[in-house]
Write a structure and sequence with these properties.
Elements (H helix, E strand, L loop, with lengths): L10 H7 L2 H4 L2 H7 L6 E4 L6 H7 L4 E6 L2 H13 L5 E5 L6 H4 L7 E5 L2 H6 L4 H14 L5 E7 L5 H17 L6 H8 L7 H11 L1 E14 L6 H9 L9 H19 E2 L4 E15 L1
Parallel strand pairs: 1-2, 1-4, 2-3, 4-5
Antiparallel strand pairs: 5-8, 6-8, 7-8
Length: 284
Protein backbone atom coordinates (compact mmCIF):
# COMPACT_ATOMS: atom_id res chain seq x y z
CA UNK A 1 0.00 0.00 0.00
CA UNK A 2 1.41 3.39 -0.97
CA UNK A 3 1.38 6.27 1.46
CA UNK A 4 -1.22 9.02 0.98
CA UNK A 5 -0.82 10.88 -2.31
CA UNK A 6 -3.47 13.54 -1.75
CA UNK A 7 -1.26 16.65 -1.69
CA UNK A 8 1.24 15.54 -4.35
CA UNK A 9 -1.10 15.97 -7.30
CA UNK A 10 -0.32 18.73 -9.80
CA UNK A 11 -3.48 20.06 -11.49
CA UNK A 12 -1.40 21.64 -14.25
CA UNK A 13 0.38 18.35 -15.02
CA UNK A 14 -2.99 16.60 -15.02
CA UNK A 15 -4.47 19.03 -17.54
CA UNK A 16 -1.36 18.83 -19.75
CA UNK A 17 -0.76 15.09 -19.71
CA UNK A 18 -4.07 13.47 -18.73
CA UNK A 19 -6.85 15.39 -20.46
CA UNK A 20 -7.75 12.11 -22.20
CA UNK A 21 -9.12 10.79 -18.89
CA UNK A 22 -12.37 12.81 -18.86
CA UNK A 23 -12.42 12.90 -22.66
CA UNK A 24 -12.76 9.09 -22.81
CA UNK A 25 -15.56 8.88 -20.25
CA UNK A 26 -18.51 8.72 -22.66
CA UNK A 27 -19.33 5.08 -21.87
CA UNK A 28 -19.51 5.54 -18.10
CA UNK A 29 -21.45 8.81 -18.48
CA UNK A 30 -23.97 6.96 -20.64
CA UNK A 31 -24.39 4.44 -17.79
CA UNK A 32 -24.95 7.35 -15.41
CA UNK A 33 -27.70 8.63 -17.75
CA UNK A 34 -27.87 12.13 -16.21
CA UNK A 35 -31.42 13.43 -15.65
CA UNK A 36 -32.65 16.96 -14.79
CA UNK A 37 -33.79 15.79 -11.34
CA UNK A 38 -30.51 14.07 -10.40
CA UNK A 39 -28.38 15.11 -7.46
CA UNK A 40 -24.97 13.56 -8.09
CA UNK A 41 -21.99 12.94 -5.83
CA UNK A 42 -18.82 12.74 -7.94
CA UNK A 43 -16.07 10.81 -6.12
CA UNK A 44 -12.48 11.43 -7.20
CA UNK A 45 -13.51 14.25 -9.52
CA UNK A 46 -9.97 15.54 -10.05
CA UNK A 47 -9.88 18.83 -11.93
CA UNK A 48 -13.67 18.94 -12.15
CA UNK A 49 -13.93 18.85 -15.94
CA UNK A 50 -16.35 15.93 -16.01
CA UNK A 51 -18.40 17.23 -13.07
CA UNK A 52 -18.86 20.54 -14.85
CA UNK A 53 -19.83 18.82 -18.11
CA UNK A 54 -22.45 16.71 -16.31
CA UNK A 55 -23.78 19.71 -14.37
CA UNK A 56 -25.57 21.15 -17.39
CA UNK A 57 -27.80 18.04 -17.49
CA UNK A 58 -28.70 17.61 -13.80
CA UNK A 59 -29.97 19.46 -10.74
CA UNK A 60 -26.71 19.46 -8.74
CA UNK A 61 -23.24 17.92 -8.71
CA UNK A 62 -21.04 17.73 -5.61
CA UNK A 63 -17.44 17.47 -6.86
CA UNK A 64 -15.14 15.72 -4.35
CA UNK A 65 -11.54 14.54 -4.36
CA UNK A 66 -8.93 13.49 -1.83
CA UNK A 67 -6.46 16.11 -3.11
CA UNK A 68 -6.89 19.64 -1.79
CA UNK A 69 -4.94 20.97 -4.77
CA UNK A 70 -7.28 19.32 -7.26
CA UNK A 71 -10.39 20.47 -5.39
CA UNK A 72 -9.11 24.04 -5.30
CA UNK A 73 -8.44 23.87 -9.04
CA UNK A 74 -11.96 22.53 -9.66
CA UNK A 75 -13.47 25.23 -7.44
CA UNK A 76 -11.67 27.89 -9.47
CA UNK A 77 -13.09 26.45 -12.70
CA UNK A 78 -16.57 26.47 -11.18
CA UNK A 79 -16.24 30.06 -9.98
CA UNK A 80 -14.80 31.31 -13.27
CA UNK A 81 -17.59 29.60 -15.18
CA UNK A 82 -20.22 30.98 -12.77
CA UNK A 83 -21.67 27.48 -12.46
CA UNK A 84 -24.31 27.63 -9.76
CA UNK A 85 -25.16 23.94 -9.34
CA UNK A 86 -21.66 22.54 -8.69
CA UNK A 87 -20.12 22.45 -5.21
CA UNK A 88 -16.67 21.19 -4.21
CA UNK A 89 -15.21 19.50 -1.13
CA UNK A 90 -12.11 17.60 -0.07
CA UNK A 91 -13.24 14.06 0.78
CA UNK A 92 -11.08 10.96 1.19
CA UNK A 93 -13.39 8.41 -0.42
CA UNK A 94 -11.66 5.55 1.35
CA UNK A 95 -12.49 6.73 4.85
CA UNK A 96 -14.59 9.93 4.94
CA UNK A 97 -17.71 9.34 2.82
CA UNK A 98 -20.08 8.62 5.72
CA UNK A 99 -18.43 11.29 7.86
CA UNK A 100 -18.76 14.13 5.33
CA UNK A 101 -21.64 13.22 3.01
CA UNK A 102 -25.23 13.44 4.36
CA UNK A 103 -27.21 10.24 3.87
CA UNK A 104 -29.92 10.49 1.23
CA UNK A 105 -28.77 13.81 -0.24
CA UNK A 106 -27.56 12.34 -3.55
CA UNK A 107 -29.51 9.84 -5.62
CA UNK A 108 -26.51 8.89 -7.75
CA UNK A 109 -22.85 8.37 -6.85
CA UNK A 110 -20.48 8.60 -9.81
CA UNK A 111 -16.76 8.07 -10.22
CA UNK A 112 -14.40 8.01 -13.19
CA UNK A 113 -10.77 6.85 -13.02
CA UNK A 114 -10.45 7.15 -9.24
CA UNK A 115 -11.31 3.91 -7.46
CA UNK A 116 -8.01 2.18 -8.32
CA UNK A 117 -6.32 5.02 -6.41
CA UNK A 118 -8.83 4.73 -3.56
CA UNK A 119 -8.31 0.96 -3.36
CA UNK A 120 -4.54 1.51 -3.47
CA UNK A 121 -4.71 3.78 -0.42
CA UNK A 122 -6.46 1.08 1.61
CA UNK A 123 -4.62 -1.76 3.30
CA UNK A 124 -6.95 -4.73 2.87
CA UNK A 125 -9.84 -6.29 0.99
CA UNK A 126 -12.05 -5.59 3.99
CA UNK A 127 -11.19 -1.88 3.85
CA UNK A 128 -11.99 -1.80 0.13
CA UNK A 129 -15.30 -3.54 0.76
CA UNK A 130 -16.10 -0.97 3.45
CA UNK A 131 -15.55 1.86 0.94
CA UNK A 132 -18.41 0.39 -1.11
CA UNK A 133 -20.49 -0.18 2.02
CA UNK A 134 -20.14 3.50 2.91
CA UNK A 135 -21.47 4.51 -0.52
CA UNK A 136 -24.40 2.11 -0.12
CA UNK A 137 -25.21 3.59 3.28
CA UNK A 138 -25.44 7.20 2.03
CA UNK A 139 -27.61 6.39 -1.01
CA UNK A 140 -31.42 6.39 -0.76
CA UNK A 141 -33.37 3.28 -1.84
CA UNK A 142 -33.20 3.11 -5.64
CA UNK A 143 -29.98 5.11 -5.64
CA UNK A 144 -27.36 4.31 -8.27
CA UNK A 145 -23.60 3.74 -8.02
CA UNK A 146 -21.89 4.18 -11.40
CA UNK A 147 -18.13 3.76 -11.73
CA UNK A 148 -15.29 3.37 -14.20
CA UNK A 149 -11.83 2.58 -12.85
CA UNK A 150 -8.68 0.73 -13.76
CA UNK A 151 -9.35 -3.00 -13.90
CA UNK A 152 -7.01 -5.93 -13.32
CA UNK A 153 -4.06 -5.64 -15.73
CA UNK A 154 -4.46 -1.89 -16.27
CA UNK A 155 -1.21 -0.28 -17.50
CA UNK A 156 0.54 -3.50 -16.53
CA UNK A 157 3.58 -2.75 -18.67
CA UNK A 158 4.02 0.67 -17.03
CA UNK A 159 3.75 -0.82 -13.55
CA UNK A 160 6.36 -3.48 -14.38
CA UNK A 161 8.73 -0.86 -15.85
CA UNK A 162 8.41 1.40 -12.82
CA UNK A 163 8.87 -1.42 -10.30
CA UNK A 164 11.90 -2.73 -12.22
CA UNK A 165 13.65 0.63 -12.58
CA UNK A 166 12.95 1.74 -9.00
CA UNK A 167 14.34 -1.57 -7.74
CA UNK A 168 17.49 -1.03 -9.83
CA UNK A 169 17.98 2.52 -8.58
CA UNK A 170 17.69 1.38 -4.96
CA UNK A 171 20.19 -1.42 -5.68
CA UNK A 172 22.68 1.17 -7.00
CA UNK A 173 22.26 2.95 -3.67
CA UNK A 174 23.24 -0.29 -1.93
CA UNK A 175 19.71 -1.08 -0.78
CA UNK A 176 18.32 -4.45 -1.84
CA UNK A 177 14.55 -4.48 -2.28
CA UNK A 178 12.45 -7.12 -4.00
CA UNK A 179 10.06 -6.35 -6.83
CA UNK A 180 7.18 -7.42 -4.60
CA UNK A 181 8.32 -5.10 -1.82
CA UNK A 182 8.53 -2.12 -4.18
CA UNK A 183 5.09 -2.82 -5.62
CA UNK A 184 3.50 -3.35 -2.21
CA UNK A 185 5.00 -0.27 -0.56
CA UNK A 186 5.15 2.26 -3.41
CA UNK A 187 2.50 1.49 -6.03
CA UNK A 188 -0.46 3.84 -5.46
CA UNK A 189 -2.87 1.63 -7.41
CA UNK A 190 -4.89 -1.49 -6.80
CA UNK A 191 -6.49 -2.81 -9.98
CA UNK A 192 -9.26 -5.10 -8.81
CA UNK A 193 -10.66 -8.06 -10.72
CA UNK A 194 -14.32 -8.10 -11.71
CA UNK A 195 -14.83 -10.90 -9.19
CA UNK A 196 -13.48 -8.71 -6.38
CA UNK A 197 -15.65 -5.78 -7.46
CA UNK A 198 -18.75 -7.99 -7.63
CA UNK A 199 -18.04 -9.44 -4.19
CA UNK A 200 -17.65 -6.02 -2.56
CA UNK A 201 -20.80 -4.65 -4.21
CA UNK A 202 -22.90 -7.66 -3.24
CA UNK A 203 -21.56 -7.69 0.31
CA UNK A 204 -22.66 -4.06 0.65
CA UNK A 205 -26.17 -4.95 -0.53
CA UNK A 206 -26.08 -3.61 -4.08
CA UNK A 207 -27.84 -5.25 -7.00
CA UNK A 208 -25.39 -5.30 -9.92
CA UNK A 209 -27.07 -4.09 -13.09
CA UNK A 210 -23.90 -4.15 -15.21
CA UNK A 211 -20.25 -5.11 -14.66
CA UNK A 212 -17.84 -5.11 -17.59
CA UNK A 213 -14.12 -5.17 -18.32
CA UNK A 214 -12.63 -3.63 -21.48
CA UNK A 215 -9.11 -3.61 -22.86
CA UNK A 216 -8.79 -0.07 -24.23
CA UNK A 217 -5.40 0.87 -25.70
CA UNK A 218 -5.13 4.59 -24.99
CA UNK A 219 -3.11 7.18 -26.90
CA UNK A 220 -1.20 9.43 -24.51
CA UNK A 221 -0.96 13.19 -24.92
CA UNK A 222 1.96 15.11 -26.41
CA UNK A 223 3.66 12.77 -28.86
CA UNK A 224 7.20 11.68 -28.00
CA UNK A 225 7.08 13.08 -24.45
CA UNK A 226 3.73 11.46 -23.70
CA UNK A 227 5.05 8.61 -21.58
CA UNK A 228 7.39 10.83 -19.58
CA UNK A 229 4.45 13.15 -18.96
CA UNK A 230 2.24 10.26 -17.88
CA UNK A 231 4.86 8.95 -15.43
CA UNK A 232 5.50 12.46 -14.07
CA UNK A 233 1.76 12.95 -13.52
CA UNK A 234 0.76 9.57 -12.12
CA UNK A 235 3.96 7.85 -10.97
CA UNK A 236 5.08 10.26 -8.26
CA UNK A 237 4.54 7.85 -5.31
CA UNK A 238 7.41 5.73 -6.66
CA UNK A 239 9.92 8.55 -5.96
CA UNK A 240 9.56 8.25 -2.19
CA UNK A 241 13.05 8.23 -0.66
CA UNK A 242 14.78 9.20 -3.92
CA UNK A 243 16.48 12.50 -4.76
CA UNK A 244 15.81 14.40 -8.00
CA UNK A 245 18.70 12.77 -9.86
CA UNK A 246 17.51 9.30 -8.88
CA UNK A 247 13.91 10.16 -9.76
CA UNK A 248 14.98 11.36 -13.20
CA UNK A 249 16.96 8.14 -13.69
CA UNK A 250 13.86 6.09 -12.91
CA UNK A 251 11.77 8.05 -15.39
CA UNK A 252 14.30 7.94 -18.23
CA UNK A 253 15.03 4.23 -17.76
CA UNK A 254 11.33 3.35 -17.51
CA UNK A 255 10.55 5.31 -20.67
CA UNK A 256 13.28 3.47 -22.58
CA UNK A 257 11.96 0.11 -21.40
CA UNK A 258 8.44 1.07 -22.40
CA UNK A 259 9.50 1.97 -25.94
CA UNK A 260 9.61 -1.79 -26.51
CA UNK A 261 5.87 -2.18 -25.87
CA UNK A 262 4.09 1.16 -26.07
CA UNK A 263 5.90 3.43 -28.56
CA UNK A 264 4.49 3.49 -32.10
CA UNK A 265 7.44 4.84 -34.06
CA UNK A 266 5.62 5.03 -37.39
CA UNK A 267 2.79 7.05 -35.84
CA UNK A 268 4.89 9.11 -33.41
CA UNK A 269 2.77 8.32 -30.37
CA UNK A 270 2.60 6.36 -27.15
CA UNK A 271 -0.27 3.91 -26.61
CA UNK A 272 -0.70 2.59 -23.07
CA UNK A 273 -2.43 -0.68 -22.23
CA UNK A 274 -5.47 0.55 -20.35
CA UNK A 275 -7.97 -1.94 -18.94
CA UNK A 276 -11.24 -0.45 -17.74
CA UNK A 277 -13.68 -1.87 -15.22
CA UNK A 278 -17.17 -0.35 -15.33
CA UNK A 279 -20.23 -1.06 -13.28
CA UNK A 280 -23.69 0.19 -12.46
CA UNK A 281 -25.20 -0.99 -9.19
CA UNK A 282 -28.52 -0.19 -7.51
CA UNK A 283 -29.46 0.13 -3.85
CA UNK A 284 -32.72 -1.77 -3.61
Amino acid sequence: MATSTGEQWSPNDYVTHASFVPALASRVVSLLAPQPTDHILDIGAGDGVLSIAIASQVATVHCTDGSRHMVEYAATRVAEGKIKNVTTEVVDAGTEVKEKIPAGKYNKVFSNAAYHWIFGSLSSADARAKAFQDVYDILPPGGEFVVECGGHGNVGEILVALVSTVTSVWARKGVVKTYAEIKETLSPWYFATNAEIAGWLQAAGFKIELLEREYRPTTLNNGDIGMKGWIDTFGFPFWEGLNDEEKNAVISEAVELLRIADWLEHEGKWVAGYVRCRFKAIKE
